[in-house]
User: Which sequence fits this backbone?
C-alpha cells in the first residue's frame, strides 16, 4: 500500500493542468458494456437522475469477475494525499448513503482494522501483544497494531452490492442483456450500434465501456483512434473463502492486514469477515495472459496453497479451517495505475470507466455517479475527474 501511495504521488505530472474531456451530447439509448461495479453503479445513478433509457450488456452474470471476487474493504482516508483522494472520499460517502438506503441488503459493517505481523516460529514479542489482539489471533503473532478505527473503515459484500444496484436500476426501467459484445457500427467517429454474439444490433445513442481488465483489448480492437498503451503485466490475484475451525459461536469480526515473514521474503495476505461466518482471504498474485472470458479464469493451486499456509499463521481457527473456494481474478489496471473516467478521445459518444486497480469497489459508486452525470448533465458535478481524464494518454502510442 505504501509503495502504491508513493508511486501515485509522483504520477500527477501534467494531470492538474489538463481540462476535462468534452461531454457527449444528448445520451439517447445508453449502452453500458460490463456488469461489474462500474457498470451497475452507472446504471443505478442514471436512474437516480431520472434517466432509464439504458441497457447493461454483460456476457456472463452480474459481478462475475473482479467485482464479485473482491474483498470489499473500504477506507475513507487511505487515498489521501494522492490523485485518488477526491474520488475515494466522495465514493466512500456514497457507500454510506447506500448502506443507509439498503440497510438489510448489502452487508455493510464498520469494522476495526488491524495490522498483524507474523513469523514462522516462536518469538518473545508475541507474548507482549496478547492483550491487544482478538482472542482468535493466537498464532505466531509478533506485532499487533490498529490500522484504522471503525468509523473510517468498513466492509461490504461486493457481489451483493452490484446485484442490488442492478436490481434497483431494472425495477426503474433499465434493461439487462446477457450477451457478448462483438463489434460496433460507426458513422464517422460516432457509435450508432453495438453488435453482440447472438446477432443483435443495439441502437446506441451513447456507449459506456466498463469492461475492467478487458478494456484495453476492447479499445485496441474497436476504438483504434484512441491510443491507450496496454497495461502490462496483467495481474492475476488469488483469493480463498475459508470456514474457520471452531468459530461458530464467536465469528471473526475484524479486518486484518497481515505481514508475514517466512524467511524467504514478506507476504501480505488480507482477511475480511463474510456475512455467513466464513472469511475471505487474498494476497497472492502472479502475471498470466488474460483469457478471453471471465469463465475461463483458473486459479493457480500452488498460489492458493501458499496463501492458505501463510494466513494460517494468524491463528489455529484459520490454520485448521476448511478452504471452501479457490478463485482468481485480474486487476483492471491502467498504464499509470489511475482510473480512466470520462469521454473517450476521438469519439463523440463514448465514455469509459476502468483501470481502478484494487480500489474498484471503494471507487465504484463515485465513478458510476460521475459517469451518469456526464451522460445526463454534460459534466461531473459530484467529483472532479481531471486526474482521471482519458485524454492524458492521447499523445502516447501503442
Assistant:
Amino acid at each position: 500500500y505504501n509503495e502504491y501511495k508513493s508511486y501515485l504521488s509522483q504520477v500527477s505530472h501534467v494531470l492538474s493542468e489538463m481540462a476535462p474531456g468534452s461531454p457527449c451530447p444528448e445520451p439517447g439509448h445508453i449502452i453500458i458494456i460490463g456488469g461489474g461495479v462500474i457498470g451497475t453503479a452507472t446504471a443505478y445513478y442514471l436512474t437516480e437522475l431520472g434517466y432509464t433509457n439504458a441497457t447493461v450488456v454483460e456476457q456472463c452474470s452480474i459481478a462475475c469477475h473482479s467485482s464479485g471476487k473482491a474483498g470489499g474493504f473500504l477506507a475513507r482516508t487511505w487515498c489521501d494525499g494522492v490523485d485518488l483522494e477526491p474520488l475515494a472520499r466522495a465514493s466512500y460517502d456514497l457507500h454510506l448513503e447506500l448502506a443507509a438506503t439498503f440497510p438489510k441488503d448489502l452487508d455493510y459493517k464498520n469494522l476495526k482494522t488491524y495490522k498483524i505481523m507474523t513469523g514462522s516460529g516462536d518469538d518473545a514479542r508475541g507474548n507482549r501483544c496478547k492483550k491487544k489482539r482478538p482472542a482468535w489471533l493466537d498464532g505466531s503473532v509478533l506485532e499487533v497494531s490498529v490500522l484504522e478505527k471503525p468509523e473510517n473503515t468498513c466492509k461490504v459484500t461486493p457481489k451483493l452490492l452490484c446485484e442490488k444496484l442492478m436490481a434497483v436500476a431494472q425495477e426503474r426501467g433499465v434493461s439487462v442483456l446477457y450477451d457478448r459484445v462483438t463489434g460496433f457500427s460507426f458513422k464517422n467517429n460516432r457509435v450508432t450500434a453495438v453488435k453482440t454474439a447472438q446477432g443483435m444490433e443495439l441502437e446506441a445513442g451513447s456507449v459506456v465501456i466498463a469492461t475492467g481488465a478487458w478494456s484495453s483489448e476492447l479499445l485496441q480492437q474497436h476504438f483504434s483512434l484512441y491510443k491507450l498503451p496496454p497495461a502490462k503485466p496483467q495481474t492475476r490475484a488469488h483469493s480463498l473463502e475459508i470456514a474457520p475451525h471452531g468459530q461458530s459461536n464467536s465469528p471473526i469480526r475484524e479486518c486484518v492486514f497481515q505481514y508475514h515473514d517466512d524467511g524467504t521474503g514478506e507476504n501480505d495476505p488480507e482477511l475480511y469477515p463474510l456475512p455467513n461466518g466464513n472469511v475471505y482471504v487474498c494476497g497472492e498474485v502472479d502475471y498470466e495472459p488474460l483469457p478471453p472470458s471471465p469463465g475461463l479464469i483458473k486459479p493457480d493451486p500452488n498460489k492458493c496453497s501458499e496463501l492458505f499456509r501463510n494466513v494460517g499463521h494468524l491463528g489455529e481457527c484459520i490454520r485448521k479451517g476448511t478452504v471452501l473456494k479457490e478463485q482468481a481474478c485480474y486487476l483492471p489496471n491502467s498504464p499509470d495505475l489511475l482510473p480512466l473516467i470520462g469521454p473517450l478521445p476521438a469519439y463523440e459518444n463514448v465514455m469509459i470507466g476502468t483501470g481502478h486497480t484494487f480500489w474498484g469497489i471503494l471507487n465504484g459508486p463515485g465513478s458510476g455517479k460521475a459517469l451518469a452525470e456526464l451522460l445526463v448533465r454534460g459534466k461531473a458535478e459530484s467529483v472532479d475527474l481531471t486526474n482521471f481524464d482519458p485524454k492524458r494518454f492521447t499523445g502516447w502510442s501503442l
